[in-house]
Amino acid sequence: MDSVRSPDWPAAPLGGLAANSAAARYGTPSGPAPAVGRAQPPHPAEPAYPPAHPPAPPAPVAGPRPEAHPGRRAAPPVPVKILIAGGFGVGKTTTVGAISEIAPLTTEAEMTSAGIGIDDPGARSAKTTTTVAMDFGCVTIDRSLKLYLFGTPGQARFGFMWDDLARGALGALVVVDSSRLDDCYPVVDYFEQAGLPFVVGVNAFDGRLALDLDAIRWALAIGEHVPLVRFDARDRLSVRDTLLVVLDRALQRATRDRGA
Amino acid sequence: MTPDAGGEGDPEQRVRIRLRAPVAGAAASAPDPGPEGPRPFVLTAGRVASADPAIGLETQVTAEPGASDDEVALLPPELQAIIALCAEPISVAEISARTRLHFGVTRVLVGDLRAAGHLEVHLGPGDGASDPELILRVIDGLRAIS
Ligand SMILES: Nc1nc2c(ncn2[C@@H]2O[C@H](COP(=O)(O)OP(=O)(O)OP(=O)(O)O)[C@@H](O)[C@H]2O)c(=O)[nH]1
Ligand SMILES: [Mg+2]
Prior knowledge:
The structure holds 2 protein chains of 2 kinds. By secondary structure, chain A is of the alpha/beta class. Helix content of chain A is 27%, strand content 22%. Chain A is built from 6 helices and 7 strands; from the N terminus they run αβαβββαβαβαβα. Chain B has helices at residues 11-29, 39-44, 69-73, 77-85, 92-99, 103-115, 132-143; strands at 60-63, 90-91, 119-122. Chain B contains 7 helices and 3 strands; from the N terminus they run ααβααβααβα. The longest helix of chain B is centred in the first third of the chain and has 19 residues, at 11-29. Chain B has a domain at 47-128: Arc Repressor Mutant, subunit A. Chain B has a 3-stranded antiparallel β-sheet. At the A-B interface, strand 1, strand 2, strand 3, strand 4 and helix 6 of A face strand 1, helix 5, helix 6 and helix 7 of B. Magnesium ion is lined by residues 92-93, 135, 151 of chain A.
């Protein structure tokens, strides 16, 4: 329990990063901060939000969180999300906490489970509505882009909620424990059907795998196109690199779709 | 976007009436609802399934700067709490986590508060997942983490 709490981040772990990239992008080393209701969106992907109210006058620079001013706020960031899915206790929350700049928060949702007997053996087999807890965290990419990570249970088919989760997601990391592979079948099936780019990450509990990667690939019956990596859910850089594999798949899909 | 179930006429009027009415009823019939009382359900009148599907977990919400404090003060405390959280941009998931309301309930209430002019819901231009530029920015951002 205690050992995998995310490390105590400094108050703004990515403040330096965010500040750097903001400065790089907007080129304001000193002087007034970019006006919060700036006229020129920095990126064409900036959404055209509903009619703005008169922009506030430029606020003086006040540290790494310029949006913390009263009055008219900065435009919200464009949110993107990656799902962290997997069965009970495989390390989803640990994964989110390892890289999130906030301690993982939990939201609860009603999920209607189209139970096909995959859920806990012996437990209810009929279709049920269950309350499921999802953990999430976030990483500020830059002033106008924020990555959310949603840890979502994957041991049963929770139809309605998964559709909500998958809508607009860049991709997913399916976390598996090599000694309990069957926990992740439903979610692997779901992502495959939904066409969501995903990567299977084997959380190497204490460096040990019950099966080697080839055996795991075979057992999961995932195609060669699905990356299978081994990672450590407690390690920030390991989680970062694994998410980069997910993003690589997401990028492949996006460029392919664009070319088509 | 998606019209609320049973919604015709002036949306503001309709929403205001609905948000006020159940509270009076709840107070009369259930004097001690307690912190985990029936309010979320009462507030949404069971409309969870009719929530706007375009509002996602990650969707950003901000308080409408023009909204009048007097009007907000008349709302049930749960709704006031949501509006207060939205002083800075915040995701629907985070509103749900901080208010301890289920996500489905939160989504309905956020939709109501938008209809009543209290919140701005920032539905982006659409599908970031199909935008290679956006994905490249995320990749660069993650690479910068050490
Ligand atoms: N030794 C070791 N323990 C781990 C590792 N990853 C996770 N754990 C532990 O395994 C337990 C489950 O990890 P969580 O991150 O809570 O897993 P989860 O998937 O969120 O679990 P649920 O939400 O309950 O389904 C926790 O007690 C962690 O401390 C690991 O790589 N090594
Ligand atoms: Mg968990």
